[in-house]
Structure formats: structure tokens, C-alpha cells
Known about the structure:
Layout: H1 2-6, H2 11-14, E1 17-20, H3 25-34, H4 43-48, H5 65-69, H6 76-89, E2 106-109
Amino acid sequence: MAYKMAGITDPAKEVDFAEVDDRFAFKELQHIEALGLVKGSDLPALISEGYFERDGEKPVNVSSGSLGCGNLLECTGGQKALEVVLQLRKEAGKTPTRQMRNRRRAILEVLAYE
């Protein structure tokens, strides 16, 4: 529904990067597939090729995710949203340390846990 509202028909091609929930390491992989960021691909091979790295084809969690930043509990979604906004505004810091180049469309996925 969110993709439809944003006019995205093929997220694997139209989304430039993603910040997804990764409070548990395996969840990042599940969310990459569930969000349609890859199509019919061998996920382990893409990971080993660096496909999801900061300089890869489809960066995921360039903020280092919850495992790198720490579990911020109720603030995790806010931290991920801030990273997406800073990247899209080109205000994330010096390149190549943090700011990515040529990224215009992102997806933010955060789940609420009770």
C-alpha cells in the first residue's frame, strides 16, 4: 500500500537505499526480501558481493543499524528516520565517511515490538 501511494511499482529498481529494523541480525535479511528490494536473487551471494554495503548497489542500514548504533528502544524508528532524512538532504556528513552519493529515494521500515 505504501509503495502504491508513493508511485513505486518495482522497489528493487526504484528504491535507492533502505533503513530497516535489525534489532535481531536475521531480521534485516527478512525485511530486505519482504520489502521487495531484491527479486529472485540469491541473498547470500548478494551479501558476499557487497550489494547492500554503503557503496553497493542497494545500501541497507548505512547508519550501522541497531547493532551498530545500539538499541534505542522507542527511539529506534526516530534514529532510522533521521538517517534517511540526512542522507536525502545530503547533510549526513563528509563523503565517503557517511554521506552517500546519488541517492534520491529511500524506504524506512520500522516495526513496533510490544
